[in-house]
Structure to design on (155 residues):
């Protein structure tokens, strides 16, 4: 099974990908970078997207000081015909005495595989930051192995 990363490719007999990428992207006039964390995970036995997210929130609330779920809503990842339904979660917690604001998009990209995008900022999500978040989600283009199935066109 070929496994592609920016720097090259591996070839494995089999693979359970639970890797994490951490990207810092410019987005604020004050020079504060945003951190985009990309995580791969899998649904547990008998879980659907909603129950998986509820379990993860419960685990986070035990491990992060003052963790709070602010809002959970239906969302998407991608655009056009290459779109995955998702759940978008907004949270807040403290790290080193500072508040951390997060928006997280959890998309089921295959039967059991999840792709989780988390945008983290030390600042409250204002209109500009929310627009940047939506832009990041919309500009996602899945690799051919995970592209959503296209509806058959009638001829």
């Amino acid at each position: 099974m070929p496994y592609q990363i920016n720097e090259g490719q591996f070839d494995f007999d089999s693979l359970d990908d639970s890797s994490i990428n951490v990207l810092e992207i410019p987005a604020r006039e004050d020079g504060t970078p945003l951190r985009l964390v990309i995580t791969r995970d899998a649904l547990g036995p008998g879980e659907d997207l909603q129950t998986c997210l509820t379990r993860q929130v419960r685990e986070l609330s035990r491990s992060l000081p003052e963790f709070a779920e602010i809002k959970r809503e239906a969302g998407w990842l991608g655009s056009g015909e290459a779109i995955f339904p998702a759940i978008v979660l907004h949270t807040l917690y403290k790290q080193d005495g500072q508040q951390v604001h997060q928006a997280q998009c959890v998309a089921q990209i295959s039967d059991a595989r999840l792709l989780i995008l988390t945008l983290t900022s030390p600042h409250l999500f204002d209109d500009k930051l929310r627009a940047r978040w939506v832009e990041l989600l919309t500009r996602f283009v899945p690799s051919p192995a995970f592209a959503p199935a296209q509806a058959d066109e009638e001829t």
Summary: Residues 151-155 have pLDDT under 50 and may be disordered. Strands lie at 2-5, 8-11, 20-25, 34-42, 68-79, 82-95, 98-108, 113-121. The longest helix spans residues 49-63. The longest strand covers residues 82-95.
